[in-house]
Structure formats: C-alpha cells, structure tokens
Amino acid sequence: MTHRSTLEHLLEKYKFISTAKSKHLLMMNNYTYCQMNNTRQHYCSSYWSNGCKARVKLDLKGLNGVGCKGKVKLDSNGKVIKADQIHSHEPPKYVKTTNYEFIPTGKGRHVLMMNKYTYYKREAPGNYYCSKNSSGCKAKVKLNSSGTVVKADQSHNHEPPRYMKTSKGIYILNKTFSDYEFIPSGNRKYLLMMNKYTYYQKKKTGNYYCSKNSSGCKAKVKLDSSGAVVKADQSHNHEPPRYMKTSKGMYKLSNKYLCSYDYEFIPSGKGKHLLMMNKYTYSQQNKTGNYYCSKNSSGCKAKVKLDSSGAVVKADQSHNHEPPRYMKTSKGMYIRILNKTFSDYEFIPSGKGKHLLMMNKYTYSQQHKTGNFYCSKSSCGCKAKVKLDSSGAVVKADQSHNHEPPRYMKTLKGMKNFKFFTQFFSDYEFIPTSKGKYLLMMNNYTYCQRANTGNYYCSKHGIGCKGKVKLDSNGKVLKADQIHNHEPPKYLKTADGKYIRISGRIFDFEQNFLDYGFIPTGKGKHLLMMDKYTYYQQNKTGHYYCSKKSCGCKAKVKLNSSGAVVKADQSHNHEPPHYEFIPTGKGKHLLMMNKYTYWQKNNTGHWYCSKFSFGCKGKVKFDSNGVVKAFDTHNHEPPQYIKTTSGQYVKV
Asked: What residue stretches are annotated with the FLYWCH-type domain (predicted)?
C-alpha cells in the first residue's frame, strides 16, 4: 500500500458531532475541529486557547493565525483531500453515548434511561441528573433542543437500578432474578424454577405461585403469552428447596443441603475403599452404584447413588449423626481419629527430667520410649492416648477424656517449663474493707493478708478453703493456689471505682445495672425500675421490695439518702414484666408492651393506646404495687419499631 493510499484510508475515518449551540464539530482520531467562518476550513478546537497547530486545509485558503494549526480539507463531495494533524495538545475528552429512551414512572412522569441508569429532568431544559443525585451521585446528561446528547457524565458511585423489560416494552422495577426453567414434578406436571425457588402454575394461566404458598409464602411470578417474565415477586419467607442436578440434567430433591457434589474414595482398613462426600463416608453395596452411610447399621438412612460413569445421580444426606473425623496427611492419606480433631502438640518438661506431650491442653506420658503416649490420668481410668510415628507425625489420637484438662500457666520468660497451677490467674487489685483494711481480689475471689507478710489466704479460710496467693516484696505474684471450695463473693463496682458487697444472684460487672428510674402508679406513688424489674417503696424509707413480694419473691434494693444503690438483691423467682419505656421526641416516654405503645394520662398509672384517638380501646393500668392490668383488645396492627445497637427505638 502506497503512502497516498494509506493517508486516504486514515482520513476517511471522520464524523461530525453536535455541540450545545446546535452547531457541529468535525471529529477525526478523537480530535475535534471547528469550522472557520462557514468555509471548508476546520481548525483544531484548541486553536486559540493552547496554540495547537493541527488543522485541516481546504481548497479555499484561509488564515492560519497563531493558534492550533490542525485542519482538515474536504472537496465539494465531502471527501477528505488533506489533513494536517500536527496538534500541540491532547484531544478533548468526549464520551461516546449509547442510545437512550424514556420510561414512565409511577407518578405520570418519565425518566431518561441510558446504560441501565436512570436520570430525572431538572428545571433547566435539557439537563438530566442521576436518580441517586440526592445520595451524592454526580452523573448527568445534557440534551440539545433536538434531543441529541451533547454531554454525558456517567461517573456513577452506585450500581444501576434493576429494571425488567416486558415483552410489550414496559419496564418494571424489581429484584434481580435470573432466567427460569421448568423441571418435572411427580404428577406429570412441571414446576417453574427461578433462583433456586420453585413455583406451581395456577389453573393453566401465566400465574405461578411459590410451592410454599400453603405455608404463607406470598412470592409469585407472572409470564405473558410468549413466556416472558412480566412480574416477579420473590419475597420468600423460607429457604429454597434443595435440588441436585444430575449428570443427565434432571433435578432430584435432596433431604439435606449439599455443599458440593465432589467426592473421593479413601482406603479402609480391610483393603476396600469408602466413598467420602462432605466429610461423611459411605460403603458400597454388593459392587453396585449404591453407597450407604457407614452408620447404616445404627439407623442412618443417608445414601449416594452413582451411574456407570461415576456421576452422582442421587444423594440423600439426611444423616442422624456427626461426620467421622479424619486427618489428611501431607501425602494425601486419610487417618481416622477416634475423637475430636486435634491441633499441633508440644513437649513440656516434667519434674523428673522427662517430658510430657501436650495436645489441646491435655498431657500424655510416654510408654517405654515408644511412640505411644497415654493420658497423665491413665491411672484414674482415662483411656485417651496418642500415637506418633518415627518422624513424629500423629497417626492416631484418641481424646476421649473423662476429666477436665490440667491447668498450666506459661511463664513470662517464654520458656518451655510450665509450672502447675490449679487455675489461671489474672491481675489483682486491693479493695478496702469496712474496718479500714484491704482485701486482695483476684478472679473475683478475695484474700486477707496474714501478719503483714506477702501471704494472702482466702477470706473463707475459716471454713476450710485452701485458696492462697503469695506476693514478693515488689508485689509480683509468686504463687497462686486457687482451689476454692465455694463460689466467689458478689461485689458490685460503682462508677467511682468502689466495691459494694451484694447478695443475691451474680451480676455481670461490666454491665452498669445501677441505672434505675421511677415510674408513676395509679395512686400518685412511684415504682423503682431496675433491670426491667419493678420495686415498691416500704414506708417512705430507702428500702424497695419487688412488686411480686406477695408471691414469695425476696428481691429488694436499698438506696442511701443521696439515692445511690448500697444493696441490690435481685434473686427473683419470676420473669420480669413484659414491658419497657421508650423515649419520644418531646422528652416524654411511651410504654411498650407486646409491641404496642401506650401514652400516660395526666401523670397517673393509666396508660392508653397510642391509637386512642382512632377508637382503639387498649389500655394498661398499674396499681400501687406495680401489678399490671392490661386490656389489649386492639383494633389495629402494632407500630413498627427498630431497636438499634445502642438500645434505642426508631419508628419506621
């Protein structure tokens, strides 16, 4: 090809594009040229601004000026005969837009759709902004008076909305759904399958309802006469049925969900092989394609069927037991272990110059310098054992222990010597007593000092508790024997860091249950509410007793003169009342019971349904002891509230 023919071939690739002022630019190789004074001369668009010299030269001679020299020359038929493309700048950035269309909205208006995104019209003519503009999306499209796209900024920060185009060309906004197919059912009929859910046909029409419609599922699909989906409501209230696609393309309903259909064969101890699928093993039946669960003799009905090519044609995995535990070695071999999966092990020194094997916190002693290790509690009847091969790899691990693991603490030096303790101990602190002395507190237990030494004995030492702690002169723990024969005492840590001895049930010290409030009753009195339980005041003192005291509940709370909790016995013998108070936007509170809300009348114990003005007769009444009388005959559905992570309620 000659230089002339090559030039002509390149120059033929140009076109005209519209501008916002109803004019046209000549575009060639992504560069644009503007026409000079309605002649055939086209100069680069950056002729005046950037000094570009690129140009297209026409038959009619024109001034080159001092700007961009880029120009294109056309003959009378519009054929390029000369093109000077020595530009001094980068080509302008244009977006090649695709076709667009207008689709109706639900309010009688239309939105512009381009590349699956939608745009709404602003007050200025021709300007369309992304439908997610209120969410920060800056994408926009501009049309001229003739409807041609002159600008398209499609820098979206979100996924396009999901529309479905029906056979009649109508768009329906819906959830994304894939193609569907028909699968045979057992009654010589067919089910429609879409996104793993199945639908049955209603009276030979285009309406298909979820197979769980009788159980209250409202999902449905509608097809037109051509089989196209015109409506798909997939608001299911259940999991999809579990189908397995066979090698022949048929679907089989499985009783249990299959993670995958891959399987493999592993050798058994008798020179045969077991089929392993999803960690379960199956034995072959009479050299056929039928494989039954290894626990078939124990009543397990799970089974797998293979065809002649080895493909799975049926898999019933309704097991009634846990899968057996196998360990895959580095060589790809499977070794069965008799109990739970074990992690790596290590050797720790014992007190006699020997070592113990430690695995999953349990220790094992070696038997006659062989690879057999038996549990340290073997003399007490424990049958657990571990077997190592010559390379130190675990080949067998029976961890059926009949006792708790021994308690070891790793020293701060990171050494492999472990010192035996009965329980891990954390940091300790000192708390004052009522006699001006201090108790050492560790792991919720308290210890009293012995004769101003570093020895601390459990506060229950007088009743036979052997727990004790020893500190050195620097306060470092040297020994901690925490063999207690009792529960730890119950203390409450206040907001200022002080401890208060309490009775009753054990509290979660990280939960600040000191917050309480007062709620009015029907006779001008108040109830104290703490942790959803209510207490009434005894003779205008600081003593508050549970509202269910007449039913035998012994729970009580004591406040001092400043209103601080000094004692809280919350050993209730009943559940808390099923109501709570939620704040409103006006500084007041609503009572919520069984999802319905009630407002208080004149600061009394009478609470009326929030829909009282609409004729609802629901109400709640508190008596002086906090006993609730509820008349919950509502004529409406309860309001919908969402409880946030901070415990607040937001109405939706």
From this structure: 102-158, 182-238, 265-321, 347-403, 518-574
